[in-house]
What does this fold into?
Amino acid sequence: YNTPEGIDMFFVPGTIYQTETPLSGKIAVTEDRTGVRKLIVGGLVQSVYDSKSTKTYGVWDGFIQLAQERHETVERILILGLGAGTSAAQFLSVYPNAYVVGVEIEPKIIEIGRRYFHLENPRISSVCADASTWVKETKEKGETFDVICVDMYIGDKIPAFCESEEFLQILPSLLVQGGSVIFNRLYYGKKKVEADAFIEKLRTLFQHIDTKVVKGEGPFENILAIVGDHLSTARTTPQ
It folds into this structure.
């Protein structure tokens, strides 16, 4: 692969796998010569794996930091938008006795996670499903989680249902008492305007929201919004 003049070849990643699907478009796995792998979907990095560290030096580290600030221990974690599963592995590095359920709509990405990102931990259950339907079914079953991470992107697009009031009010009903929901949004250019509008919508539904701007891939930023210790319509309605 070609590199710009003055860039050390050692650190420039090469593509070790690529494909294309009707749902996700172009999907690639890259690896640099230090062994760090990245899952790239629609031109955006969606998972980072380093065999020597659980850190990604990106937005996913922020999920862990926010969870640790609020939860000394957790038993069950839900990740909506599992990707290749590296954020699930991060959570287990901090909460080794926890169990992670990861929902991912793209079957090819789950396959890639198992093949290239070591998504085979018995404490991680990867579910191939549409999250909009899955959360409704899970609510009916009465399943609950300590932490829910919402990180659903197809390329740089958020599925429309992720911003619907129906979906947002289901999530608290999946939490144990004192649980938290963490949302990830891109936070640059037009995406910043969209993210700010989304957070304002959250404020109309939930009484307590904290936000944290974190460095994303390259020069970009993300914003994490955490809803916890809150009262909402969904939470105060008997289940």
Q: What stands out?
A: The longest helix spans residues 189-205.
